[in-house]
Amino acid sequence: MRPVTDRDSAEWWERVARHEFAVQECDSCGTLRFPARAYCHRCRTRRWHWRPIAPAGRVESWIVSHQPFLAGVTEPYVVVMVRLADAPECVMYGNWDWPEPPVAGGPVRAVFAVVDEELSLINWRPAE
Ligand SMILES: [Zn+2]
Question: Where is the ChsH2 rubredoxin-like zinc ribbon domain (predicted)?
């Protein structure tokens, strides 16, 4: 199953396929935001640009799924919610890619899981 992109997220997925880790930054008030949206939730400005940030954060929470929602994924699998180090207002979800379970508040780094030329996913592992 491939992610379904829309007007706002398509370019973000293209950047992930190039292994770029970025969030949107409002041109007016500087608010960082993720996931991608057409306008700033704080000041309503529609002008923004991509800002590369460190692919790092801390584990906010996680779930262990025992349901086979995704073809080719063996359950149980873990999905983590990560609060981004360079954009603390933003959280990102991704598969947990490590044998030991996540630790609440633990530092993590993103790894790009290459599916094919046009698609990579962002997974998370403990930071060294
Ligand atoms: Zn703004």
Answer: 13-47
DSSP state of 96: B
Report CA(40)–ligand 1 centroid distance (Å). Answer: 5
Number of domains in the chain: 1
**How far is the centre of ligand 1, averaged over its atoms, from the C-alpha of 44 (Å)?**
6
The tokens of 45 are what? 């400005």
97-124 pLDDT per residue, tens: 999 999 999 999 999 999 998 899 999 9
- Report how far residue 126's alpha carbon sits from residue 91's, in angstroms, rounded to the nearest whole number: 16
pTM of the model: 0.91
- Evaluate whether residue 75 is within a structural domain: yes
Cα–Cα distances in angstroms (integers) from residue 110 to residues 68, 70, 102, 125, in the given order: 24, 21, 13, 7
Residue-wise pLDDT for 91-103, tens only, equals: 999 999 999 999 9
Is 2 part of any domain? no
Residue whose token pair is 């991704």: 94
**Cα 47 to averaged position of ligand 1 atoms, centre (Å):** 8
